[in-house]
Amino acid sequence: MERQVNKFKEGLQNGQPQIGLWLSLCSNTVAELVGYSGYDWLLLDSEHAPNEPAAMLTQLQGMATGTASAVVRPAWNDAVMIKRFLDIGAQSFLVPYVETAEEAAAAVAAVRYPPRGMRGVATSTRANRFARVKDYFNHADDEICMLVQVETQKGYDNLDSILATDGVDGVFVGPSDLSAGLGHLGNPGHPDVQAAIIDINERCKAAGKPAGILAPVEEDAKRYLDAGFMFVAVGADIGLLIKHSDALLKRFKPG
């Protein structure tokens, strides 16, 4: 059986902007439904959502025949958490709260087999199609995409060394946390925050690594894409449900 190629990583390497959607509802039905919409990637969140491995597995299964690649965000930069998501077939990771090159290197080590890393070896998992991919261990590391979140002042200060870390495939800006880290909690539109966001993108481009961001406001998403951000989440399942359910009700119950 052929190994699973990471189309999301391949798209980034080929310079193709990847349009995504943020999923926090922990629903395999939502993941399957949206997976047919045509997005390039869907973020399956377990940092700010109660998304444990058993539920994550059903979402990965639901996405298996759609267009979108799964990007899994573990709750923390923790090798044990990451290992469990690897074994159920996750290939792309968005690791939160990375502040130093050492923390970035630890995230990379968690997704690589020895001697390049410390990923535990299981011989029959969903990741290798239950031992049916005979050369899985020869290529598994190459198909992993490791994205790290820079979302604090310390992470911003250490951006260049994080970008220089071998195995870091891209940097993601968390606008809400970054604004808090820069002293502007709840105000990602503050000029200081926006300047930092653009600076991160430019430094990523200079390092030859893609930058990503969550931008649920359409004008912001288009502006970031025009600026050269390569993977942009243009909305979220919760936001879409709130917006459209509220709008529908207002048409029948004005005020």
Notable traits:
TIM Barrel, 42% helix, eight-stranded parallel barrel, alpha/beta, 12 helices, 255 residues
Protein architecture, described:
The chain has 255 residues and is α/β, with parallel strands linked by helices. It has one domain (7-252): Phosphoenolpyruvate-binding domains (TIM Barrel), CATH 3.20.20.60. It has helices spanning 7-13, 28-35, 53-62, 79-87, 101-110, 136-139, 153-157, 159-163, 175-181, 191-207, 218-227, 237-252; strands at residues 18-23, 41-45, 69-73, 92-95, 145-150, 170-173, 211-214, 231-236. It has an eight-stranded parallel β-barrel with strand order 1-2-3-4-5-6-7-8, surrounded by seven helices. Helix 2 runs parallel beside helix 3 (53-62) and helix 4 (79-87) runs parallel beside helix 5. The longest helix is centred in the C-terminal third of the chain and has 17 residues, at 191-207. It is globular and about 60 Å long. The model has no long low-confidence stretch (mean pLDDT 97).
What is the fold-level CATH name, i.e. the topology? TIM Barrel
Tell me roughly what share of residues is in helical segments. 40-55%
Radius of gyration: 18 Å
State the name of the first-level CATH class: Alpha Beta
Given helix and strand content, the structural type is alpha/beta
| Series of secondary-structure elements, N-terminal to C-terminal | HEHEHEHEHHEHHEHHEHEH
Mean pLDDT: 97
Total beta strand runs: 8
Within the largest sheet, what's the order of strands? 1-2-3-4-5-6-7-8
> From the coordinates shown, what is the CATH architecture?
Alpha-Beta Barrel
Domains counted in the coordinates: how many? Answer: 1
